[in-house]
Amino acid sequence: KEIVSMGVNIDDSATSASASKSTPSGHPLAGSYIKAHEWDEFLRNNPDVDLIDCRNSYEVNMGTFDRAIDPQTVKFTDFPDWLQEFGEREKQDDENAHDNTVQKPRKIAMFCTGGIRCEKSTAFAKTMQNKKTGKPLFDEVYHLDGGILSYLDMVETEESSSSSSSSFTNASSLATSAEQDSSSDDGKRKGTIPLSA
Questions:
Q1: How would you list the strands of the sheet with 50-53, edge to edge?
Q2: How far is CA 82 from CA 7, 29, 72, in A?
């Protein structure tokens, strides 16, 4: 039985051109991994990537990355429907652009707390197709290897290093907000994790 279920089946034996032969999880369809120490640079160098927070609204309200899209889900099983709608809405908008406009590849990057949900989400995203055209919804799919916890651990390590030049401020904001009672501020707290310089 799955520890974290999306409520959809992902065909592990799928033979997709985008299937990865070697992933840390061994899942053949997992998205391309971006290591924590490469994450900020990846996002800076790819301003056209849609950054998606795979966590539920409660977790997102504790803190997220700048420019992250909040799917506003209550549970993980809500995520597949949201992702389908998101992918089709954006693709539809692109297809309605002027005929002389070159359609850019659709890139998404996902993150979650520890990497399990984004592992499943990226595998699912790589199998998704437009219901009308049958074309893939996403051209490139990435995720933060090890999730936010790995990222925060990396930032903490860099900050404790005497040679660190990281301008990441308040790296512990996400971790400490998880320990605080969200009812003390009526659940209106929302922190963002800035990109480090």
A1: 32-34, 140-144, 107-111, 50-53
A2: 13, 20, 9
Mean predicted confidence (pLDDT) in 164-180: 40
For residue 18, the model assigns a pLDDT of: 42
* Active site positions, annotated: 112
**8 closest CA partner among 108, 112, 128:** 128
Q: Which domains does the chain have, with CATH numbers?
A: 32-179+186-193 (3.40.250.10)
Measured between alpha carbons, how far is 42 from 37 in angstroms, rounded to an integer? 10
CA distances from 12 to 66, 88, 107, 133 (A): 33, 24, 22, 24
Contact 109, 143 (CB under 8 A): yes
pLDDT one-digit tens code per residue, 57-76: 999 988 889 889 999 999 98
pTM for this predicted structure: 0.71
